[in-house]
Every structure is written in structure tokens, then in C-alpha cells.
Amino acid sequence: MAKKNMLVCFDGTELSAKALDMAIDFAKADEEIHLDVVYVAPIPALSEEDQQKYAELLDMLTKDCRDILYQAQDQLDGLEDRYETFLVKGSDPAAELLKLIDSRDYYLAIIGSRGLTGIKGYVGSVSYKVLQNACIPVLITK
Fold first, then answer.
1. What is the enclosing helix (H) or strand (E) of 112?
2. pLDDT value at residue 16
3. How far is Cα 10 from Cα 69, in angstroms, rounded to an integer?
4. What's the N-to-C CA distance of the chain in angstroms?
5. Of all helices (H) and strands (E), which one includes residue 124?
6. What is the model's pLDDT at position 6?
7. 107 - beta bridge partners?
8. pTM for the model
9. Which of 22, 100, 122, 142 gives a 20 to 30 Å CA spacing to 52?
10. pLDDT value at residue 24
């Protein structure tokens, strides 16, 4: 059996929880589906000097981001060995998601229509950018 890899974008919001629920439903219906649940930690672009100054703050932010991924793991109960969680750091969440999509063998990405980064038009700017630039189908939940 070949694995079908699906990317699920999760940021702790209600719409990202819906995206994860939808992905879980897909995975329960097809045992070949493997879920990669990713949260992009919105780390501002800092110089090396600033990174050293704000190291403690960045560590706290990273811990908070990991806590958000633990929420996703609670939803994934029953799918052991069929998912992984990823914490990716970057100043542009959409760009980081697109890099991940380009570097792995996904057949579908699922993302909530609005996340923590605000609204641009009908869908969030991150989901819109991923939709417009991904080389795979993108399912946006609302």
C-alpha cells in the first residue's frame, strides 16, 4: 500500500480545527492516508544580534507554538502511526507552507479560510497565497 500524504495547516483557531477534523475524516475513510499537521510559528525576521537579545522571548513563543500542536494531537486520537506534527518557524507562514509542499510528496493540502494573521478579502491572506501558488490541490475550510 502506498501512502497518500496530506498536509493539514493548524494554528489553533476554530477554522484550522475544522480543517483538521476534515482531514481526520478522510484518514478514517482511507487507511492509506498519512497526515502531516503543521503549524508555522510566526517568528519575525531578526538579525543574529537581535535573535540573541530576544532568545528567551523566542523560546517562549516556540513553547506556545508547541502547545498549539498538542491541541492537534488531542484531535488525532485513534490515528496513531498515521500522522506527524511539524513546527516550522518563519516570518512568512504562507511561504513556509509552500516550501513544505514543494519539498514533500503531498497530494492535498487542507487549510482554514482565516487564521491568526488577519483577513484579506474572502479568505485569509495565508490561505489565499497557498491556494494561488501551491502545485497541488488546496482545500480551504470555512
1. strand 106-112
2. 93
3. 8
4. 32
5. strand 123-124
6. 97
7. none
8. 0.82
9. 100
10. 96
Cell triple for 87? 513546527
Q: Where are the alpha helices (DSSP H) in the chain?
A: 14-29, 48-53, 55-75, 93-103, 125-133
Amino acid at 41: A
Q: What element of type H or E holds 36?
A: strand 33-42
Per DSSP bridges, beta strands 119-120 and 138-141 are unpaired
Q: Output the pLDDT for position 121.
A: 44
Which distant-in-sequence residues (6+ apart) come within 8 Å of 3 by Cβ?
A: 32, 33, 34
Task: Find out whether 125 and 117 touch, Cβ atoms under 8 Å.
Answer: yes
What is the spatial distance between Cα 7 and Cα 2, in angstroms, rounded to a whole number? 16
Ramachandran bin of 93, using left for φ above 0, alpha for ψ from -120 to 50, beta for the remaining angles: alpha
Q: Is the pLDDT of residue 123 over 80?
A: no
Q: What is the pLDDT of residues 39-98, one digit of tens each?
A: 998 777 777 777 777 777 777 777 888 888 988 998 898 888 899 999 998 888 999 999
